[in-house]
Amino acid sequence: MNVKRLMCGSAMVLGLFTVMLVCQAKPVKAPVKAGLTNEFFAFDNGINRGKLTIEQQAKTLKELGYAGIGYSGVRDLPKKVKAFKDKGIKVFSTYVGCRPGVKTPYDPKLIDAMKQLEGTGVVLWLTVQGKTDDEKATAVVRELADAAAKHGVKIALYPHFGFYIATTTQAIRLVKKVDRKNVGVSINLCHELKAGCGPKLPEIIKSAAPHLFMVSINGADHKGGWDKLIRPLGDGEFDVFGFLKKLNAEGYSGPIGLQCYAVKGDQKKNLARSMVTWKEYQKRIASKEK
Q1: Which of 47, 126, 135, 249 is the most exposed place for a label (fewest CB within 10 A)?
Q2: Rounded to whole angstroms, how far apart are CA atoms 210 and 225?
Q3: 3-state secondary structure 208-227
Q4: Dihedrals phi, psi of 120, to nearest 5 degrees
Q5: Sign of CA dihedral 140, 163, 226, 248
Q6: 127: left (phi > 0), else alpha (psi -120 to 50), else beta?
Q7: What does the alpha-carbon distance between residue 50 and residue 65 come to, in Å, rounded to a whole number?
Q8: Which residues, listed in sequence order, are joined to residue 231 by a DSSP beta bridge?
């Protein structure tokens, strides 16, 4: 009897010890994927907007290696989403605007567009324009955010030089006041440079990181007109690679769009050149180049 009791007691102790080990064991984390793994898409202003059909745009961007497109407006959204999905790529965003303080602060069709975008993952890239103030802007963006939330749609404020929200820092201020989970900010490199924010970009990236939904880049000089601030990726004096490294270091893993506004030359060749540079950036960041 004593031997049996001893054996039973030993088994209980061993079992308890095993349970303790299992409880104390830390879960094994999946390895972090190294490098610049963000999905890279092109703005529709760089792929013969109005000249190519939606299907032709999707085919061209797929062949060039882009993950998809960023569109403008709310026209034909279901058709656009389907055409890109059929090619195995996607529509990342659509560029829309609001003007707080006026009788009709946004296109009424925007509400219907939100219904159409349910389940697609398309982000509304929203500019805030006009002579207004934070109180009015907050009210309009909240109204749009609450309508979008019913359909699982996100809104990213699009800072645009000369608009009420012209910089990422201003967008962060407004997003905090709006206080909606489906509303975030974006960093648009050319607009930050136009506003003279280039030297502050490291701290802007850090401040934006908790709210960052979208980013746009392009080749650029440090200052000048749009012809200097929007160029094919790889052109210009500004260190875009360094900018991407800072984004990567802050853990930004969301999509990155290629701004192509008014870039001269053959658009398909420009896109091809930019893709070559993007792949070079990916390799350099993966190799942890300083």
Answers
A1: 135
A2: 31
A3: HHHHEEEEEECECCCCCCHH
A4: -95, -25
A5: negative
A6: beta
A7: 21
A8: 219
SS (H, E, C) 99-110: CCCCCCCCCCHH
The pLDDT of residue 289: 76
Euclidean distance between CA atoms 221 and 231, whole angstroms: 9
CATH 3.50.30.60 at 35-286, yes or no: no
Of 61, 120, 60, 131, residue with least CA distance to 94: 120
Which residue carries 């201020």 as its tokens?
Answer: 173
Task: Note the pLDDT tens digit of each residue in 144-160.
Answer: 999 999 999 999 999 99
Domain ranges of the chain: 35-286
Q: Where are the beta strands (DSSP E) in the chain?
A: 40-43, 68-72, 90-98, 123-128, 155-157, 183-188, 212-217, 256-258
Q: How deeply is 277 buried, as exposed, middle or buried, from its count of CB atoms within 10 A (0-12, 13-18, 19+)?
A: middle
d(CA 42, CA 256): 9
Contact 258, 48 (CB under 8 A): no
Pairwise CA distance, residues 200 & 184, whole Å: 20
Structure token digits, residue 289 = 């180049």
Residue ranges for the chain with pLDDT beneath 50: 1-32
Mind listing the pLDDT tens digit for each residue in 21-67? 333 444 443 344 567 999 999 999 999 988 999 999 999 999 999 99
Q: Give the pLDDT confidence score for residue 49 in this predicted structure.
A: 87
Say what the pLDDT of residue 35 is: 79
pLDDT at 94: 98
* Calpha distance 22→2 (Å, rounded): 30
